[in-house]
Amino acid sequence: MLKQSNHYTWQGIIDIALRHKREIVLAHIIAIVATLLSVPIPLLMPLLVDEVLLNQPASLVNTINSIFPLNWQGAILTITVITLFSLLLRLKALALGVWQMRQFSIIGKDVVYRIRKELISRLQRVSMAEYETLGSGQVISHLVTDLDTLDQFIGVSISRLLIAVLTIIGTGVILLWMHWQLALFILLINPIVVFITIQLGRKVKALKKKENKAYATFQQTLSETLDAIQQIRAYNRERYYLGHVIDSANEIKNHAIAYAWKSDAANRLSFSVFLLGFDMFRAISMLMVLFSDLTIGQMFAVFGYLWFMLAPMQEIIGIQYSYQAAKAALQRLNKLFALSYEPKYPHQFNPFENHSTTSIRLENICFSYNQQDWVLDHVSLEIKAGEKVALVGASGGGKTTLVQVVLGLYAPQLGNIYFNNVPMTQIGMDVVRTYVATVLQHPALFNDTLRMNLSMGREHSDEELWQALEVAQLTETVKNMENRLDTRLGQRGVRLSGGQRQRVAVARMILANPKVVILDEATSALDTETETKLHKALNDFLKDKTTIIIAHRLSAVKQADRVFVFDEGRIIEEGRHESLIHENGLYAKLYNA
């Protein structure tokens, strides 16, 4: 399993990686072959110093002479052949390294895809209250930045680590073969050098954590500001809100500066420690030439292998940074598991099937955002099947929250909701949302075609789309668009007016063909003439459907059979709209009409 005890673990990531056994085995075989090809390279040219320059022919010269004719033999041939052979080995090792990286990329990308897929699937079940508190910027940070960090560690760092470890092992074998005493000294001192550099690296990991946190805050602030930029500009408050974004960017700068120079200082110091060891090993190698059987060519080979070990040693040292970054990213991803799910009710009954519509009954509903102040305070009401009711009252009275509760977007702390006398807890919220549709005052539109914004990914014929547009009073508008149904609406439907966006939402609702319709200030942006035509066209569609209307406009309230008056989360009065509006003058009191 990927997650254990409700959080992501490295063991879970390993379990996913093990599903790619073929790639893992192949990557290791490739790494071994690449190491076998690359490790001998630093030995070849230095040995020519002994065998060619110092005229001490041995295995290399003898092997080459056995292959080529006598009249070809000589120093030029030997140096040329060994040079070409070294280049060939390097190219083959390079190709194998790329191939090995590809195998680990497949594994890393798949692990990250599965985590991303699970997180996105989890968002489908996270409660709306939690999601709204978290914010889209934070979610994007987790799904993009944190997972990219994890991807880099799995797909890049680990593949390089494998090659680095094998290279050091291969180098150690060669050095032991050449001069075991010198090799033991080098191999025993190198871990000390690595340990010192790792200790230095740990000093700066906290700085990276602060930098990542600053990036997440900046991303959240920037996302919220850009989402509301139109209203911010309308109120001439760009300087204030963008100032907050700049402050967040300044925090990134400060933390990034601290991390950059301190991590660089640690890297430089680490490298200096390695160079000190390198100089010490070179000095000892020269002493070995003087006082042991180490040849000059072997001494140059030792120098070559010390440089050859530099890159893999740096990879091993540097992986701690990648690991710490990946570990921090994993911890941030696990915060998503602290978010609570919305209740999942069993699908025991479906009161919507085989009925043209359904009755709705709310029984003693209580809801609060902060677990203290009731937004809905023991609300009870009953709506008959096919009845149209209006919810009116001052802003903040709880009308829209009640709609969110009916849709199951918010779970009430007390009470229950019944459809055809079946409680939602026995129906399931997803079933309710299939048959209950809402049109909001500010509908969400996507930067996609009108067709996609209407269908929401469902299959509908062009005829059905045009019929819905006809009812929504949008036919002429769409016909005048350059690409008609395939016209892109822009970010949040920016190419449409407010009234057109509302009518797109009405057409979307018509295509969904729900059995219960909720109109939440759905015509507030329309002019009187268009609104009248829309209500008239909707009458036939809503004829047998249970309808809840939330509105301030008298024209919308008049469409209802009954009116419920909300005030501070309670229903303070109900009745037919004629008596509430005309006899008591309640509408005038509520809206100063």
UniProtKB/TrEMBL annotation:
ABC transporter domain: residues covered: 360-593
Alphabetized InterPro entries for the sequence: AAA+_ATPase, ABC1_TM_dom, ABC1_TM_sf, ABC_transporter-like_ATP-bd, ABC_transporter-like_CS, P-loop_NTPase, Type_1_exporter
Keyword tags: ATP-binding, Membrane, Nucleotide-binding, Transmembrane, Transmembrane helix
Pfam families recorded: ABC_membrane, ABC_tran
PANTHER family: ATP-BINDING CASSETTE SUB-FAMILY B, ATP-BINDING_PERMEASE FUSION ABC TRANSPORTER-RELATED
Protein name per Swiss-Prot or TrEMBL: ABC transporter ATP-binding protein
GO molecular function, one term: ATP hydrolysis activity
Subcellular location: Cell membrane
Species this chain originates from: Candidatus Thiomargarita nelsonii
TM region(s), chain numbering: 24-49, 69-91, 161-178, 184-201, 296-313
Coiled coil: none
Membrane association type: Multi-pass membrane protein
SUPFAM superfamilies in the cross-refs: ABC transporter transmembrane region (SSF90123), P-loop containing nucleoside triphosphate hydrolases (SSF52540)
Domain of life: Bacteria
Cellular component annotations (GO), alphabetically ordered: plasma membrane
Domain ABC transmembrane type-1: 29-325
